[in-house]
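Student: Send me a single protein entry containing the residue sequence and its fold in token form, directly below this note:

Tutor:
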Amino acid sequence: PETVQKCFKELRTAFNTGKTHDLEWRKKQLQQLKLGLTEMEEEIQKALNSDLGRESFVSFFTEVAPIAAECDHYVKHLDEFAQPEKRDSPLTVAPAKSRVVFQPLGSVCVMAAWNFPFTTLFQPLASIIAAGNCALLKPSEMSPESSRVCRKLVETYLDNECFKVVEGGADVSIACSQLKWDKICFTGSSEKGKLVAQAAAKNL
């Protein structure tokens, strides 16, 4: 829990530097995430086999390929997605011009599921990176080898000021859900989801 609090403060500090606003930085992080998936593919497949008994070809098509495709999609379209959108202005404020400017939200906590440990952690992360946010990632302790590999990938390939991994059991998940995140992405059972929502509601 103390580690979670420390990570939270460091992510807030990193976001406030404005580093994540830069589109080229975001594209680089997305490319790095894809590179990590590619270079660590064998390690990912071994972890999934150890945790879940999953065959290599299934691991590739359900865990590696979808995340890599998501990274490619955001890199290709990020400039387009980030463009301000024009809106009509009411006559009462004429001759004003109106537009929607898309800006990063802040710091996001992602809590992944045990049965698809990479997809439920890194697909949300791709969206988080593209949107210019920082993230704390909590892999499921029920897939320990996958959790270890997730941490290694993030610490090796991504900007560790803006993206951090915490491992552990229910106490860590509880500590994560009680902090004032700008958004929480949880994948798991309805029962645990209700607990996360209840804890997060106190910080709305």
Remarks:
- The mean pLDDT is 95.
